[in-house]
Amino acid sequence: MAHGKRRPAGRAEREALVETALPGALAALPMQLVGRDYAADDLLDAVACLRTAARIAVGEAECLPADPERDARGLTMEVMV
To answer: According to the model, what pLDDT value does residue 35 have?
Structure first.
């Protein structure tokens, strides 16, 4: 991503990715959240988590990096996408 998620350009980048992966998702979600307190970047983060969970559920998720390092406690330092 070229821009921070809280900047207008960064939000636009992320919204474009969400629209590509889940067409119509952003248009539908805010109506469900009327009257709730949330930041736009929180909503985008939640949609990204939903997309990743869906990819995990159908066996399409990837681990980045492919061979992750471990931290001082032995936990893998990885991201699922």
So the answer is: 65
- Domain total of the chain: 1
Residue 5's DSSP bridge partners are none
Task: State CA 30 to chain mean position distance.
Answer: 16
Q: Is residue 2 part of a domain?
A: no
Q: What is the mean pLDDT of the chain?
A: 87
Long-range Cβ contact pairs of 15-19 (< 8 A, separation 24 or more): 15/44, 18/44, 18/47, 18/48, 18/51
Whether 63 and 78 have beta carbons less than 8 Å apart is answered as: yes
| Matching residue, tokens 């929180």 | 42
Cα–Cα distance, 4 to 8 (Å, whole number): 9
Residue 75 lies in a domain: yes
The pLDDT-based confidence of 24 (bands split at 50, 70, 90) is confident
pLDDT (average), residues 26-50: 78
